[in-house]
Amino acid sequence: MNICPRIEVDSNKLRHNTEIIVGLCKKNNIQSAAVTKVFCGIPEIAEAIVQGGVNMLADSRIDNLKKLAHLKIPKLLLRLPMQSRIAEVVKYADISLNSEIATIEKISKEAVRQNKVHNIILMIDLGDLREGVWESDAVGTAGEILKLDGINLMGIGTNLTCYGGVIPSKENLGLLSEVATRIEKEFEIKLEIISGGNSSSIYLLQREEMPEKINHLRPGEAIVLGTESAYGEIIKDTYQDVFTFVGEIIELKEKQSIPIGKIGVDAFGNKPTFVDRGVRKRAIIAVGRQDVQVEHLKPIDENMMILGASSDHCIIDITDADKDYAVGDEIRFGVDYGALLQLMTSEYIHKVTK
């Protein structure tokens, strides 16, 4: 019997998804930086993505980039660098996204010390209100960066959707293209990268609406789940079941639907509500909110229903399930991006690559 709870990764499907996204990008003269943070930079999983043909790997955490150091492909640090870890940034990342001159100055000094040239992508805030300088400050900031030793202003980029939910469009990415043109004209340089966002920008490729100057994207969800993240639509010819969560039944009993006694708050300070469906067959699987928000799991058997969870237990109504389950049996689930991120981060969930 396989160990539970676990996440199963189908490396063939992952490689296929990568090839589809890379092909879509190449068709539009766009480089792809595959985001590895959702699976915590596990090398075996990243290797399947590299085999799919991406141009670089990208992660928010230096600790994950360290795991990938053996892969001979450029590494991009997605999260703005912490000044306390500049030495590691220069050592393990070939490129980093930046918006703070004070930090870039420290990177410059460290790059010179390590006898390296570190590549910078200057982030521009186009309204999502996460990282980036305002477009009105972009030319001035670029000028300051260009004065620094050990630094190459490789390009500019933006992030959309992740915080403010702003959808990428011809208009806002068109503005990013305009900013790039201003910088190039002002300093008589050619920016290598104009990075137009993450998986939420994929739909523009599908609709052939991507501004021509955008030549770089940072897809994560599009590769691992086969969906674009602006509208949640499935990307043609991709798999949505690259990752499957598997839990083991540790109790199976018929019980009524409503607890007995006065209802207070649960272990997380919430007052639960219940629907009276009569006596139902309920399975408990060994996973809980310490590992994942169970609402983001979807039983493969659509006749099952997740009722709720505590820290360590998830309760599922299996009365109408397609098969007759017993204690010790496994139940399989699809995952969304949030569930996948939590499950891969939990040290209590086993990771199995097939």
Automatic annotation (TrEMBL):
<dbReference type="InterPro" id="IPR029066">
    <property type="entry name" value="PLP-binding_barrel"/>
</dbReference>
<dbReference type="GO" id="GO:0030170">
    <property type="term" value="F:pyridoxal phosphate binding"/>
</dbReference>
<protein>
    <submittedName>
        <fullName>Putative amino acid racemase</fullName>
    </submittedName>
</protein>
<keyword id="KW-0413">Isomerase</keyword>
<dbReference type="GO" id="GO:0008784">
    <property type="term" value="F:alanine racemase activity"/>
</dbReference>
<dbReference type="InterPro" id="IPR000821">
    <property type="entry name" value="Ala_racemase"/>
</dbReference>
<feature type="domain" description="Alanine racemase N-terminal">
    <location>
        <begin position="9"/>
        <end position="224"/>
    </location>
</feature>
<dbReference type="Pfam" id="PF01168">
    <property type="entry name" value="Ala_racemase_N"/>
</dbReference>
<dbReference type="GO" id="GO:0005829">
    <property type="term" value="C:cytosol"/>
</dbReference>
<dbReference type="InterPro" id="IPR001608">
    <property type="entry name" value="Ala_racemase_N"/>
</dbReference>
<keyword id="KW-0663">Pyridoxal phosphate</keyword>
